[in-house]
Fold PGG domain-containing protein.
Amino acid sequence: MVVASLLATVAFQVATTPPGGVWQDDYKVDANGNPVKEPHMAGTSIMAHIQRMAYGEFMIFNPLAFLSSLSIILLLLSGFPIERRRWMWTQMVIMWLAIMGSAAQHIAGDTRGMLKDVTDVSAVCWLCLMGVVFMGNVVRLCVWVLRKWGYLKKKEKKNSDEDDEDKHEQV
């Protein structure tokens, strides 16, 4: 809940104050009263004006992070039985989307100079880590499906009586 709230706060703040800031004035005509080639209005994003593609990517990932975070908060507050595996899995996937969206918006927002190079290397490392996590979850899902369909032996559960006896023998 805390992480989801933090991600929602960051995504909201970044949407209201985008990278590069916003124009502080209207610029529609030059000093002579002639229309300018590239006008802008106060309150619009500077990044949207200068780097359209990067801003487009940024504005795809920012709502993804924001709405995923709000979804996690809503699911946790709604009273669904979070002890059940399906709800935990659903929340894990949505939280994964929120974190990926937040990371992707950060990567899309850093588009110039040496910081861009550092961000690119960090992004590759991040994607490798996410690939490992994703593949681990795919393997877990495949094992679960194979056990459910009977192709793999189900886990053996220990009896609580045996556990109690083992504990008493150790003492």
Observations:
- Helices lie at 2-16, 46-50, 52-77, 85-109, 113-149, 160-170.
